[in-house]
Amino acid sequence: MRGIATMRGIDRRTALLGLLAVGITGCAAAPRGPQSSTPGPSEALHHTPHPTAHAAPLPPPPHYVPDPDAVAERFIGAVPTAWGMDLPGITTQLAASTDASLGPRIALTFDACGGRGGSDIDHKLIDGLRATRTPATLFLNARWIEANAALAAELAADPLFLLGNHGTRHVPLSVIGASAYGIPGTASVAEAVAEVWGNHVVLTELVGTPPTLFRAGTAHYDDVAVQIVHDLGETPVGFSVNGDGGATYSADVVRSEFGRVADRGIILAHMNQPQGSTAEGALPAVASLRVHGFHFMHVVEPVSEA
Fold this sequence. Notes:
Radius of gyration: 18 Å
CATH class: Alpha Beta
Number of helices: 10
Number of domains: 1
CATH superfamily: Glycoside hydrolase/deacetylase
Largest sheet: 6 strands, parallel
CATH architecture: Alpha-Beta Barrel
Strand content: 5-15%
Helix content: 25-40%
């Protein structure tokens, strides 16, 4: 596993140069509502396109330090049997709270997919979240970080936002090349490990601590890839509400989709397409949800609202 071994102990630029050679356009791979995806080379995979709630998996043991070489070796020859956005081990809702006084709790998550056409920033959205002190979990792709280094550092320093791993090349996570929305996924165990670990290195340098959350490009995984993410020390995160259809929905539809969220829900939307209507729909929806008693949290930890 020499290709994986080179990911350990390297700087951000080396990681990017080594793993960003394959370009995937913008957010073309983002979940877009009712579109179907194809399992790629294995039609035997069970496809689960519609998310339902799964309990958050147990965190890794204390002081666990992932070894990408060891993880890759462990899964050589593993054959996936399921494929989709809703598999055991993918977190699609917030963990239950023992404090009933908190009321309904939801998490806003925004993806930054990177690449050609996907490395912009929706300043109106970010500024609106800051103005209303609304916490959000931001899933950043390695290419987006490379294109927006100063802004990425600014977001990392803002406690309002929790940064998650959105992959190195923004592709579906598979060990056999399964595809979603016409985007081929990682084609081997080594590629799946590299897709997670390349940006793990980048985010660790950016934030100062390793990321604990991962969302694959297109939010699609096979069941072997899900376990690989866990063994690399991160939790695969899905969603319960597709808030902006890959930044393609109108403002009215975005507001309507955000309004469907239930207690402990995770909303997926995008922060890298300012030409879309995500901000115009999401910000009024956030205000309405707050009026109706919803509290906004990070995916893995609460943030106090001013």
